[in-house]
Each structure stands twice: as C-alpha cells, then as structure tokens.
Amino acid sequence: xxxxxxxxxxxxxxxxxxxNGMHPLLGIPLTGVLFTxxxxxxxxxxxxxxxAWVYCGLTIAAITELQNTKSNDLLKRMMTxxxxxxxxxxxxxxxxxxxxxxxxxxxxWLQLAAVLTFTIPYSYYSTKLxxxxxxxLPSPYKxxxxxxxxxxxxxxxxxxxxxALLIAGCVTGNxxxxxxxxxxxxxxxxxxxxxxxxxxxxxxxRITATGYLARKWYTLAVNYCITFLPFxxxxxxxxxAEWQLIVLCFTAGLVALTxxxxxxxxxxxxxxxxxxxxxxxxxxxxxxxxxxxIAATAILYLxxxxxxxxxxxxxxxxx
Amino acid sequence: xxxxxxxxxxxxxxxxxxxxxxxxxxxxVHGIIGLNGAGKTxxxxxxxxxxxxxxxISQNSIKLLKNHIGYVPTELYFFPRTRGIEYLQLIQxxxxxxxxxxxxxxxxxxxxxxxxxxxxxxMKRKIAFMGAMIGSSDIYILDEPFNGVDIKSNLVLKQExxxxxxxxxxxxxxxxxxxxxxxxxxxxxxxxxxxxxxxYTPAAYGEIEGDMMTAS
Lengths: 319, 216
Hints:
Distance between the termini of chain A: 37 Å
Number of strands of chain A: 0
Number of helices of chain A: 13
Structural class of chain A: mainly alpha
Largest sheet of chain A: none
Helix content of chain B: 25-40%
Radius of gyration of chain A: 21 Å
Oligomer: heterodimer
Low-confidence stretches of chain B: none
Order of helices and strands of chain B: EEEHEEHHHEHEHEEH
Number of strands of chain B: 9
C-alpha cells in the first residue's frame, strides 16, 4: 500500500511539471538545485547556530503546511488508521528527506533529531496547523473578489510593523534604516500574492485576457501606491538628498510586483513553483538596486511571463 | 443494525446535531432529507469518523466502524493529476482487494486512463461511487449521489444501490430529488434543526413534499 501511494505521489509530482509546460527531467533537477542553493544561502547568511534552528523551524513549517485536509480525509475513508499512519509517515519522511540532507550536510544533528522527533508522531495526525485570523488592510477594491482579499489586505500585522519601522527610520536620520520596512512589506506582499483565484473568478469579469491583465495590473498599481506612499513620502521629506534611491526602490517594487503578477498567471495553479519563481524575480529586481545589470536581465523575462500569463488566462476565459 | 445514540455535534458554539437517536436496519435503503445546513453531511461525516462527536455510533460487534463504510461525499475531492484507474487502484490496495469488480467498471463507462481533473462533475461522482464500491463494506453512505449524473448512469446507480440492498448492506442515501428517494428507500428520515424530526414509511411518502415546504 505504501509503495502504491508513494509511487502515485511521485507521479503526481512529476506531472506537476508537465502540466506547467516544463519537462520533469528539467524541472525536478532545477527545483533540487534551487532548493539546495537557497538552503545553503540561508545557512550562510544567518549567524551561528541560529541558522540550524531557523532551518529546523522551516522544515517543520513545510511539513505541516503541505498537509491537505481534503486529501487526508479521502485517505482516512479509504484505509484503516494504521494504514493511514503508515503512508503519512512514509510521505512525511520523503518530504523531510531533502531538508534532512541539508541538515546532515551542515552537521545540524540536534536539529535533525528534533525534526524527526516531531515528524514521526505528527504523521498520525497530519493536520494542517490552524492559522490565527488576522485583520486585513483596508483597500478600495474590497468588493472585488481576490483583488483585495489576497496579495494586499491579508498582512495587517506586517503593515503595522512597516509603519512602526518607518517612523524609526525617519527619526534616526539614517536612510538605510528606512529601507528595511519597505523590503519587509514587499516580501509579505509577494508571499501572499501567489494565492490562486479559481477560474470562475477570472471568467466572471467577462473581458479579454489583455483586459483582465490590464485590470489586474491597474488594481495592483493602485494598491501598491496606497501601501507604499508612506514610504515614498517619508523618504522624500526626511531624506530628500537620497531621493534617487527612494524613487528607485519605489519603482523597483512596482516592477517586481508586476512580474510577480505575471508569474502568478504564467504558472497558474503551480503552487510552490509559482512562489519560487516569484521570489526569484523579485530578488533579481531588488538586487538590481545595487547592480542594475541583474534587474535589466530580469526585466527581459517580463514579456515572456506576460505572454504565458495572457495565454493561460485566454484559455480560462474560453472555457 | 447501525445505532446512533445521543449524537451531539458542535461547530464552535453552533449546535448542529442535537441528541440524535436513530437506528438503521441492514438490508434496507434509508433516505435522509433536510434543508441545506440541516446537518446531513455532518451526520455522515460523524458516522465515517471524519469528525469528532459526543454520543455513540455503533454497529453490532464492529469495533472500528469507519473501516466498514463505503462513502460518497457530496463534496468530492481527488488527488490532482491522477488518472481514474490510479485512483481506483489506490483504493483497491488500501482495502486489500485483489482486483476491481469489472462489472462495476464496465457499467459506468468511464475513460479511466484520463486524468480525473478533466472529468465532468457527473463523471467525478461516478468514479467516487466506483471507489466506494471497492471492498466489501457493511454500510454505504451516499451523499447526493445523483447530482450531475447523466440519465443512463442515474439508472445504473439506482441498480447498484438496489444490489447493495439485496446483499444485506445498510445504505444511507441523501438526495434533494424526492422521487429518487421514494423510489429507492425503504424509509425516509427528515433531519431538521439537528434532530430526526420525522420518519416516513412508504405509505407516508406523500407527506414529504408538504412537510418540506413548511420546514424551516
């Protein structure tokens, strides 16, 4: 039973790439390389043993986040509790494998043991951990499905932190203290902007694919401006000498989110791949603030992403 | 005999099932009707052990009831990017069955080599039904099995339900199509306000429509 289930899951994983227009033989190694690079980057950037504990936390978060209540219910209906535990244990250990390999490579034995200790009993329950309900940010697009609920509004706490840090940035007299809140909030936006709307929410607008993308971009731009206007104003009022840097960050953020929007529809229904691509694009644009050639290269990707996004939306609208 | 005693289910402060007491005899098809939100699906999920509840649900000497239930839920879920045959094979392995009944496969005429994602609503319901038929269960719970199913499959489905009845299985059937229930069921229960409000025998089926119109 375990073999049948794991084999089916692996097939699904490979098909995920095919469904998104990428051959699995290319997609799987690429995902592996990206995963390894990002993991090693995390270990290198966080000082001391903190990295190992952060990675341990990320691993546990990944395992709990990847649980699907509906699929677990389906499995529970199919088999005995013992059978369910066996397959979930096998599946969770398989999920753990890439993380465990990185931990073993980094010799984080204690953290690896902690993750294993968590995973084995957790497999019996395999439930997604509940998330606290958070207040949403007000938006002029409250009435529009998905325009406001995802991407911009579901980050109330981050917004409060952003405002507090902005105030700190203004009073310290150092422009480089003003920048982190901008990047933190942008990160939160990108993280929440991969949430996919069901095809019905695209179809219901009854417009062309170009019209839909234009409309999405317009609302994104308005929401972006509302959200980051405090940053722009604070920067221009308190650090007028650095106006070029402030404006560059503001513009780069909008370009990054435009790419993030295109990538969302380019990999429509792509789950984690969408997020990886969105973060990669956003990272490249942000890196471009220091090294413009990286941003320029990333911007070259925009027309391609836009074209694929347009094609996917066109397909949905034709349904 | 499937016995439900003092079944209570809360969603937060919302009391959905209130001291529910009912028994379902084997070898019969029992219809469950009720307005939207009456608690039919909650009741079925409790019987299947998918939800925690207060009270008792038991059947004769069976210890773990959920291992003896074939369930077609109203809200269907399938693993994404999975072919029909793979879904059935997974259930077959999970239930420890040697093979899938070819007669059931043939009767529904489904393209099992295609991805379930590409199936229509009716086709998804059919494959869910086929899945529930794999392995020998004592209880079958069919929550809105006729939704979106074409006429031919509707007839096949009815035949299969009657076959289950002949085999001595307990079948719980929920549907908003009253004629389907009256045609197939040996008795019908009306779930209202968390309780089994009324019990109809075939002689009283004529009252169902009137009662449903006045139900709140």
